[in-house]
């Protein structure tokens, strides 16, 4: 059986014949990193980056090499560059938090780790969670998703500055245009809108199957107009103490008002804004009433606050949220079409060793796949290649056949959602809210 040392020798021989092969050099660097040969890994990552300077995985690998050698300043610089590209990457956020803690920046370490927890709750059980004193969600000691400084004072929710724009969003042209008309143009053409008596601000509710890019397009909206972005989840608001949830909600709106123009995004909004008739306790109804008050902007102006929300279950939303001035645009975010699926697959395969992939064929075979499903396809194909490479000691590029086989092994996660949505669109659609669902299903 081949050892890691044998794999290293094989890769070095292959690189002698093909010194500019980025994929081979990346594989060698990652193998060296896993073996604990951090200085050798650093050298290989640097050589690979000289050939492909903007490769995300190579940059992350070099940051890990620096971190393992105690070169924290160099590692932190690289990680902060990567977070500009992927601000919600739990792996990078966690490593960033570890290094911040090691350098004595405890407050920022807590903040970064809490953001990582929002993406991956399994991190609650990690040693880093214990080191930082971050408790699991629901703990009465600390509300884990809100930043708490080491002196006991609560910090504000972090405001992101997304760098992605609509150019980074495949397809969704109708949705983009609705967002432009409702949110972007009132800001970029303020005088024209003012002439017609239209204010800057308002709300759009996006609904559709999970994994189809609702959060991605919300973040791209902020990047499109270069404003701050505050992403709000249910755990940012709900609190076990009476009145605290309403205060948390008000504080988030107040922060957005003080930093306007600002995009305020509520993910899984149905968890906060479900029908009041379904709430058994008055506390839940009080939160909904507070939410409606904040949206109306009666006591405090919402001028310049651009409100987006996403849900997989719009039928559970209290009807009061759909009135004019609140979420008065309800937009269906459908699974990516064939052209968008091909574009997503190209993006997911970028930076990986590939060989003449027919993305259009793969897009045709992946009908109704969400963006998350397509990521699962690429991940499974890569895992198969890595398994072969570990056995033979020779890495081979991804092919159309590899990805086509992976497509067969992944079930479209949107099918179950459409089964539920069809019932609501057929039997509970008196106002035509779900006509877009029926139109989409009739095309298939």
Structure description:
- Helix 14 crosses helix 15.
- By secondary structure, the chain is an alpha/beta fold.
- It is globular and about 70 Å long.
- The protein has a 5-stranded parallel β-sheet with strand order 2-3-4-1-5, sandwiched between helices.
- The protein has helices at 4-17, 22-34, 38-51, 56-68, 72-85, 90-102, 106-119, 127-132, 173-188, 190-195, 214-225, 244-258, 282-296, 338-349, 359-365, 371-392, 400-409, 414-427, 435-443, and strands at 202-207, 228-232, 262-266, 305-311, 329-332.
Question: Short summary of the structure?
Answer:
With 444 residues, this protein is α/β, with parallel strands linked by helices. It is 54% helix and 6% strand.
Helical/strand content category: alpha/beta
Helix share bin: 40-55%
**Rg:** 24 Å
CATH architecture group name of the largest domain: 3-Layer(aba) Sandwich
Under CATH, the homologous superfamily of the largest domain reads P-loop containing nucleotide triphosphate hydrolases
CATH topology of the largest domain: Rossmann fold
Amount of beta strand: 5-15%
Number of helices: 19
Distance between the termini: 51 Å
Strand order of the largest sheet: 2-3-4-1-5
Total number of strands: 5
- Low-confidence spans: 135-154
Q: Could you say which overall geometry the principal axes of the C-alpha atoms support?
A: globular
Oligomer: single chain
Biggest pleated-sheet summary: 5 strands, parallel
Number of domains: 3
> On the 0-100 scale, what is the average pLDDT?
83
Helix and strand pattern: HHHHHHHHHHEHEHEHEEHHHHHH
- Provide the CATH top-level class of the largest domain: Alpha Beta
């Amino acid at each position: 059986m081949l050892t890691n040392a044998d794999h290293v020798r094989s890769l070095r021989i292959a690189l002698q014949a093909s010194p500019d092969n980025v994929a081979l050099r990346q594989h060698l660097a990652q193998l060296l990193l896993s073996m604990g040969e951090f200085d050798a890994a650093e050298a290989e990552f640097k050589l690979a980056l000289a050939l492909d300077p903007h490769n995300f995985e190579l940059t992350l690998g070099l940051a890990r090499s620096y971190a393992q050698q105690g070169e924290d300043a160099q590692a932190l610089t690289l990680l902060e560059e990567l977070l500009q590209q992927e601000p919600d990457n739990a792996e990078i956020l966690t490593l960033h938090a570890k290094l911040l803690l090691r350098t004595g920046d405890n407050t920022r370490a807590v903040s970064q780790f809490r953001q990582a927890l929002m993406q991956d709750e399994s991190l609650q059980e990690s040693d880093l969670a214990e080191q930082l004193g971050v408790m699991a969600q629901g703990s009465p000691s600390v509300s884990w998703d809100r930043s708490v400084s080491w002196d006991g004072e609560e910090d504000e929710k972090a405001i992101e500055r997304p760098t992605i724009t609509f150019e980074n969003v495949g397809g969704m042209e109708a949705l983009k245009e609705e967002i432009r008309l409702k949110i972007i143009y009132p800001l970029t053409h303020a005088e024209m809108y003012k002439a017609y008596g239209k204010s800057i601000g308002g709300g759009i509710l996006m609904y559709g199957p999970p994994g189809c890019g609702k959060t991605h397009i919300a973040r791209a909206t902020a990047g499109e107009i270069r404003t701050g972005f505050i992403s709000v989840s249910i755990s940012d608001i709900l609190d076990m103490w009476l009145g605290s949830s309403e205060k948390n909600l008000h504080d988030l709106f107040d922060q957005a008002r003080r930093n306007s123009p600002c995009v305020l995004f509520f993910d899984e909004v149905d968890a906060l804004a479900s029908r009041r008739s379904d709430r058994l306790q008055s506390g839940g109804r009080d939160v909904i009433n507070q939410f409606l008050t904040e949206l109306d902007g009666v006591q405090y102006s919402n001028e310049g606050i651009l409100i987006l929300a996403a849900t997989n279950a719009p039928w559970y939303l209290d009807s009061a949220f759909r009135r004019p001035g609140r979420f008065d645009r309800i937009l269906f975010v459908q699974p990516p079409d064939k052209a968008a699926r091909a574009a997503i697959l190209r993006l997911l395969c970028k930076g990986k060793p590939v060989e003449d992939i027919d993305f259009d064929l793969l897009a045709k075979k992946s009908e109704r796949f969400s963006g998350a499903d397509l990521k699962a396809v690429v991940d499974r194909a890569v895992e198969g290649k890595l398994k072969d490479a570990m056995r033979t000691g020779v890495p081979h590029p991804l092919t159309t056949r590899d990805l086509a086989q992976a497509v067969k092994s992944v079930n479209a996660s949107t099918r179950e959602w459409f089964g539920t949505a069809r019932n609501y669109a057929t039997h509970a659609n008196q106002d035509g809210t779900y006509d877009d669902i029926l139109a989409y299903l009739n095309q298939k």
